[in-house]
Amino acid sequence: MTTDFRGLWLLSGAWLAAYFTIPPLLLWAFIALLALLLALLLRERHDGAHSTPWFTGPIVFLLGLLAITTINITGSQCTLPEQGEQQLRAELSFDEAVVPTPDGELKGSANVERYWQDGSWVQCEVPVYLTLAYTLPHNAQRFESIVSFAPAESGTFSWWARALSEPKVLSQSEPNAAQNLKDRFSSVSNQLPSNAQALLPGMLYGDRSGQDEALSDAMKTSGLSHLTAVSGSNIALLAAIILSLLRVFSIPRVPSALLMIAAVGLFTWFVGPDPSVLRASLMGSIAVLSLLVGRGQASLGILSLSATILLLIDPELGAEPAFALSILATLGIILLTPSLTEIFGHVMPSWLAEMTAICCAAQFTCLPVIIALNSNFSLYSLPTNLLVAPLLPLITAVGMVCLLICTPMPSVAQVLLWIPGLPAELVGKIAQFSAGLPGAARPWPEGVLGIVLAIMLAAVLCILLIAGRETERVRVRQISLAMLGAVLVFLAALILPATLFYREPINENWNIAMCDVGQGDGIVINVGENQGWLVDAGPEDGNVVQCLRRLKITSLPIVFVTHSHADHFGGISALEESGIKIGQRLVSAGFELDRWAGASVIEAGAVKDTELVSYHVIGPETLAAQRAEPNDTSLVIRFRFHVASGEIDYFSAGDMETEAMSALLRKFPQPPATILKASHHGARNGGTEIIRTISPQVLLVSAGKDNSYGHPHQEILDVANEVGARVFRTDQSGTVLLTFTEHGVMSTALGSPVR
């Protein structure tokens, strides 16, 4: 063995004790074992005077475990008064600033500061995940509310919490110098493209608040979300810049080291105490001290010592996913990169081999945590990371300079920001392109089975790689590398193709499906027993049949075609030839009946009611439709779903444009509806009056990805936001299912089909 693994023993013991509660009996057994091993140190030595006993590792492991356990025992065991669900008056605070969800709720990790019990306040800090369906001032720090609590199964918090009353703000935070600097940086970067504006703060100091939901999803799906968390590379780059400046001024070695540690500490204060930042800062500081006293760069030992110190300070970090990802990624890079670089070096240039090795190493060791968080993995993570890797040094280095000068020289910073801004914009584009590729997010078995499989796979890969590099026996090395190759071939040949054919099961209780038919409309109303009412069939190449089969629709008692344009009628030929049973074929008065055999006109005022859903045709008026442009001949239909919680209305606007819709609404005034299908794919000529009149909670927009028409128009989205509607778009989410529950309208995105 050429690597000193004793630090890993220490970290393993500390982490185990931080994550699990050690039973008293087992704790005494560990103490007895430690005493026995320490006693062995007193025996007569037969090996070399300076050799390390074989049981050094277990001793270090037990010391780490017992140290954390002692801290846990002596620490306050604070919790809520009951074990199960309960309601309490409590004072709380979010751990960090939270951004309202599209539903207007505030969600995030929070702390119960104290709660009211038996006529007095009980001081007790309890970590929770809080949902707040009320507005809160952006600088609110501490607030009071009536809160319901439900036990959480696992994680970094013990309880799910939901505020039941409007919060009363008790204290507000005042912006400090760090926040002022971040605000100043945001103001000078507002001329950059949207992706650059959203990503740069995250890539420089871990602030993701500027990312919208779509960009965040794209970064996760493409495996690039780690770029917007401060990591060791940020600290290393900062240290390199400072070291260069110190050398320019010929600062002696000891003051240089102290100044560098102070600068890292200042950066940590600026960014905030995220687990990855704390790990990287502490590790960097210890590395500087190690070099200063001539101990060299023992990366594995420094990582283990840093992580153990953090666990001693706060044992709850042991269950924090961000802490685990930071430690495991660094561990993988330290342990596996040399072996992988050597392997890849046989088929790649050395620079590419090293970059590929770093990406693979981090993903191997982080796989169990990633699976535990979301039960899928990114198929294109490796190539996307390799694509963006050359851009990162430029973004970080110049970005940091811009951050430092944005206050004294804002004009210079504004111009200079284009240098990191354009690559950051490209990173966002690459993430969005990668996330849109077929099979971008692949499923993995859920639950304990999936986590165990991931741990086993990661462990096998790590053991084979380390054994192949560390052993001095050629035979063992050959066997390890051969087994490693066999495992990788197995993964490539079996698991990946299998996941490509996997389709997630669909909840059969969905009510409305907005099929992703590209630039067109294809809406399905679920009427039960694998039957649906179809409103439009999309364009000829829209694959509406594929969507219906995915939804397990075998019969369509009614097919509405709102008007004759190809993006609504083009898919009818494929539908007629699909074998799916079709009942009534209904069109508006403006449709030429000879274009569709069996079609009949349905006029305004027509109604139909079933046990599950009814419809009422609002327009167009027959005489007006015969003289109008095709868009204005669109069928406008109000559907009403009869569900357990009451009646839910869906208003289908077809492609009817502003003036025709305005006239229709004047003649037939409409009450609000829960769901609205945006007229004309969200085009500006679809108008905003219909959105304000219907005032929906959900706005459906069926539009092709990167369509040349610019659908949906920003004005439509602005008005939707103004009335509080949540927007679902096929160009962003693919096929969308809406399910009506007692808690409201729930959405599910099935993604885009393979066209």
Task: Report what the structure shows.
The model has no long low-confidence stretch (mean pLDDT 85). The chain is built from 26 helices and 23 strands. The strands form four sheets. The protein has an eight-stranded mixed sheet with strand order 14-13-12-11-10-9-22-23. Strands 15-16-17-18-19-20-21 form a seven-stranded mixed sheet. The protein has a five-stranded mixed barrel with strand order 1-2-3-5-4. 46% of the residues lie in helices and 19% in strands. With 755 residues, the protein is α/β, with parallel strands linked by helices. The protein starts with 5 loop residues before the first helix and ends with a strand. A hairpin with an 8-residue loop joins strand 9 (512-514) and strand 10. It is a multi-pass membrane protein. The chain crosses the membrane at residues 20-42, 54-73, 224-246, 253-271, 300-317, 323-344, 351-373, 385-406, 447-467, 479-502. Residues 517-578 form the Metallo-beta-lactamase domain. Pfam families: Competence (PF03772), Lactamase_B (PF00753).
Share of helix, binned: 40-55%
Strand content: 15-25%
Radius of gyration: 31 Å
Shape: elongated
On the 0 to 100 scale, the average pLDDT is 85
Span of the ends, CA to CA:
52 Å
Tally of contiguous helical segments: 26
Largest beta sheet: strand ordering: 14-13-12-11-10-9-22-23
